[in-house]
Automatic annotation (TrEMBL):
PANTHER family according to UniProt: CONSERVED EXPRESSED OXIDOREDUCTASE (EUROFUNG), OXIDOREDUCTASE
Membrane-spanning ranges: none
Signal peptide: none
Protein name: Gfo/Idh/MocA family oxidoreductase
Organism: Gaetbulibacter aestuarii
Pfam families hit by this protein: GFO_IDH_MocA (PF01408), GFO_IDH_MocA_C3 (PF22725)
Amino acid sequence: MSSKIRLGILGGGGDSLIGILHRVASSMFDQFQLVGGAFNPDLKESLAFAEKIGIPTDRIYKDIDSLISEELKLPEGERMQVISVLTPNFLHFPMAKKLIENGFHVICEKPMTTSYEEAKILEATLQKANTVFAVTYTYTGYPMVRQMREMIANNVIGKVQKIDIQYYQGWINPVIHDPQLRANTWRLDPEKGGISCCIGDIGTHAFDMLEYVTQLKVGKVLSDLNYVYEDNKMDVDGTVLLHCTNGVKGLIRASQIATGEENNFTVKIYGEKAGLKWEQENPNYLYLLQDGEPLRVLKPGHPYNSALSLDGTKLPPGHPEGIFDSMGNIYKGVAKAIKKEPYDHGEFPTMVDGVRGMKFIECAVESHLKGNIWIHINE
């Protein structure tokens, strides 16, 4: 019998970008085997999709309840061990909660839930179950992001004194200006997407990245959000000022109406001795900036990088690695945790990150709605 971890997937069917990203990532290190799931609310669509990607259809289910019920009938050595939740935001919480309660490990897309209250309930559920839970803040899997984290931790840049993170996209620009599209896009529907579109979708990536690479905690936030139209209930652009717990100040700039931008995620951390800059659209370059010194460019795969960075590098220097590899590194870390093998806590985002992300979203929206005031994020 295969020693691979048996994986199921909820959502991610059809032409879903996130679906193929997870499927490819899970296959990278020969740790997981996709055995079934519910890829689409329509069972016929799910069955057709399973046939298309070449997996048996005997474990394709009409919904999560059927999946749990039927899988638990199987011997423990045959049933699915971990389920990836790739559905729209409003389904994350109920699905993840049921899965945890029934003993499954979970890999969940972000934002983890649609509210902080749900996130805390999920956290309490996980504590009782003692299973593995990962949130796919995908960009933490890039080798040079991990290198940035290790360099900051090892005091290469000195005490952090300025944080500037930008995440600009333009994809929603044609949607927001069309009243019909605006009214029928699930990401702009609070019932399906939660209280925030831009901050909830990409702003939370920026927030998690900040806390991941610096290992600081944001203490309070002040935000100014942009909804563009009065009938639009969810932000599509925003700036959030930040105070970290040790006095470091910074900002997050996020937009989905930055016309012409694709996926411009830029992370800049400045310390007393040096600065570091990383750009998602050119992820194999980590820039080290020092006063009076030439710009240095660090690249993945070289022995000067940290063990955490090298563990996430699959190819020799000079061979580009990208978003699939980044997600693959997260799956690799989850596999180690499920198998109870030693792993670095920087290998995959956890429930703690998901809860922090939901708290950030709610505080950012609250700050804006109350007239752009400081809101404490720490309890």
